[in-house]
Write a structure and sequence with these properties.
By secondary structure, the protein is mainly β. The chain is built from six helices and 23 strands. Helix 1 runs antiparallel to helix 2.
Length: 393
Amino acid sequence: MAFPQVTAQIAFDSDPDDEPQSYTDVSARLRHGVTKRGRNDETRVFECGTGYGVFENLDRELEPENPDSTYYPNVIPLRRVRYKATYNSVIYYLHTGYMETPTPVWVDPDEAYVDIVSNDGLEPLKVAVTDTYSSEGTGARITNVLDSAEWPSANRVLDTGAATIQASNLVNVSALEHMTDVCRAEYGYVFVNGQGYVVFHDRNHRTLYSDEPKATLGDLSGHMPFEYLTPRLDIAWIFNDIRLTRIGGTEQVATDATSIAHYRRRVLPLENLLLTSDEAVLAFAQYLLGMYKNPVMRFEVVQLNPAALVNSEIDPWPLVLGLEIGDRLTVAKSPPGGGDPIAKDVYVESIEHRFGPATEWTTILGLSPADEAIWFKLNSATAGLLDTGMLAF
């Protein structure tokens, strides 16, 4: 089985906002690297995706203040950094970001390298914006905020959005902060993908586009093997008293008496939502109650070692390299004491790749439980039947 070719590139000769960027290939210097993007779980805000590379530098070419370097004086913060992997002629983007710290490390007279840390596009989107927005759909608001932040229109992949939100008058408010507020109302999320594009998934994205698992990770024939799995059943994930309030509205409450009797009252409050009606807020509260009123065994983290699957009946690389935030997987584990495999559908919440030296590769996926509700979908043989499934919340 072939191994992906990792390419590391730095745009020494381009300013951070130039389009297009002029990249220089520095792959020959790369010892090993790590890319990571996502969030810890489905309730959290997405953090800036990061890249980390260790580059050979005995010739001092990547030393920031070396005037004899080919790249001088451009080994500086905010130059773009990109990692990608090529497998079977297909390019998979692992990380595109902005250099934060090119740090020389001198080990001894015969060894020197540079640590390069980079953050993805969520970092520059912390820029403060001042603008006024009318009441509109969440997808339109994300578009308009990105326009206010001068984010390139070509570098966006945005859903339409399912919710309508209130008008907003922003004065020196972080663009990312406001988009986070929009996502709270939508129950969606914003992140930056491996190619450096801003991506907005609305609340319907996972049920419309990730309703079928891309693969099964497990220990049976036909499954892609994994190294370890972290299961967890925790009372911290039980909420049976949901209390939500929109700006200018009254508190909307959804409770479940049976869950309260079993697990005591466990409150989940959300305030200052941008939704436009109390009815929409109540529907949101009822949806969250259905999701969290009962305990669920969660598969939280799964680790893959695709480089070790030389004799596997499944080629792991197209899946491992092509996974995206929000993709659906089935994870199955045969219990040590015997019995049927424990199988659960999950969504990918975070993706971390560790590659090098040589052909070492580890991928760690953060997971959340898949929504098991059957949502009505037109032209579906199983989810498009009248009087079945949920229409919306």
